[in-house]
């Protein structure tokens, strides 16, 4: 509610000074309405995650995305011809509708779940103190991170203008990277996200029992799975980015950035996994500090480098940010656990398997959508076969 009030009060200033009056402040009023619903959904998501009933969260996320797609598509069909402002309103309103309805949906799931357990409210002061000991430091660092993240997002187009780009060109380039390239690169992460959220209660369980051998064993398994998957996805984007860009956006410019940024997936996918493991090991503050450091360094680079190097400077900052964040997280994880990083089986062999897979599948030249899908399936199959031959794949049993 506090965030809602603050955003409402400062919507005029944000619209005028940061967005150059390109969009209406009505957008921020719509966002204000959704904030309490988002908060409630976050609490209930945490509740179901703690109970290891992530199927409830998965159902809610599916429901939310379905509503978002339907609402946004319908609103865009109505308002798209009316210009940029109405297009933005359609996007934000579609998001707001999905957030409100998903909150009501997960609240309903919580109501029936609560009846099963016959929950009794615990008013013990020590219990409240224990919660505050965790939540307040995390909340404070989250607010700092959120503020720095907002500054970062707003600063990028403004500093690109200092480079000499027009307001429209800088916003267009930023939108191309953050709204078109990154979502494609991060789309396969849905597979990793399907289990990464469950790592928090799983590692909390091992941590409270003091089972450090099990922690190291599971970390090694997860690292192996994530890296093998990431390298396979890198190959798909590296080899088929031209066709993917044309099919999805009919824009070959996207392809160049997909090729440039796809190697980062090795770090981006792994970073989300490592963050959840650290949270399960009661290192949530370390995760937040790492993220704050990353944002602080990124903001400094954006401020000083973008006016000099422009687009290439922005790409460099993305690389620097991801490498810094993931490296610090992995180093922190290594400090508190004794897991060993198998560079040969997790990195070298998978890349060799990917290379030989491409050599074989490159003899097939396809231009249709069906052909691309077939080519991707072929390279995935050969990649899997070569991983088996090189003994990079082992039986996954936790």
DSSP strand content:
under 5%
Overall radius of gyration: 23 Å
Could you tell me how far the N terminus lies from the C terminus, measured between alpha carbons in angstroms? Answer: 42 Å
Q: Enumerate the spans where pLDDT stays under 50 for 5 or more consecutive residues.
A: none
Indicate how many domains the architecture comprises: 2
Number of strands: 0
- Series of secondary-structure elements, N-terminal to C-terminal: HHHHHHHHHHHHHH
Q: Helix proportion of residues, in percent?
A: over 70%
Q: What is the molecular shape?
A: globular
Mean pLDDT: 87
Biggest β-sheet, characterized? none
| Class derived from helix and strand content | mainly alpha
Q: Please work out how many helical segments DSSP would assign.
A: 14
Could you please describe the fold and organization of this structure?
With 398 residues, the protein is mainly alpha-helical. It folds into two domains: 118 residues, no CATH class; 252 residues, no CATH class. The chain has 14 helices and no strands. Helix 3 packs antiparallel against helix 4 and helix 9 runs antiparallel to helix 10. It is globular. The chain starts with a helix and ends in a 9-residue tail after the last helix. The mean pLDDT is 87.
